[in-house]
Amino acid sequence: MGQARIRVLVGKPGLDGHDRGAKVIARAFRDSGMEVIYSGLHQTPEQIVEAAIQEDVDVIGLSILSGSHMTVFPRVKELLKEQNAEDVLVIGGGTLPEEDINFLIRDGYVEALFTPGTSTTDIIEWIKKRLSQKEE
To answer: Taking Cα atoms as reference points, which of 24, 60, 26 lies closest to residue 43?
Structure first.
């Protein structure tokens, strides 16, 4: 990317109250030079998309452990489409069943899903590479 900093919204949708992972990833993104907006706990897809548009982010990163991923990701993508903001990358992380990961990526509800143990460096590099591809 040029001199523009990558802007990422890190969100915790749903009722899941565990945000340690989201905070770790937010700090890693910030340490790598990204601008991070942390939406906090218990966000609805509507709140997440509204914040993403207001903040003009490049990426929405959702941390989901509560099992709501099969409804949250499709809803976020639907809301982005309604707002003509489909260029925002949607990624996620959490403890997700392999078959759900495959479905969500294959059907375009999320660009990438990172499971526990994925290094933050790998996630950051993936984001940078993907955004540079979009610019070409």
So the answer is: 60
% pLDDT > 90, the chain: 76
Instruction: Please give the helix or strand (H or E) that residue 128 lies within, else none.
Output: helix 120-135
Q: Is the pLDDT of residue 68 over 80?
A: yes
The structural domains of the chain, ordered by start, are: 7-135 (3.40.50.280)
Confidence band for 3, pLDDT divided at 50, 70 and 90: low
List C-alpha distances in Å: 102 to 52, 96, 126: 25, 10, 18
Structure tokens at 19: 């945000």
Strand partners, 10: 38, 61
Spatial CB neighbours of 31, under 8 Å, sequence gap ≥ 6:
none
Total length of the chain: 136
Does residue 80 carry a pLDDT above 50?
yes
Question: Token pair of 22, please?
Answer: 């989201």
Q: Which two tokens stand for residue 46?
A: 């509507």
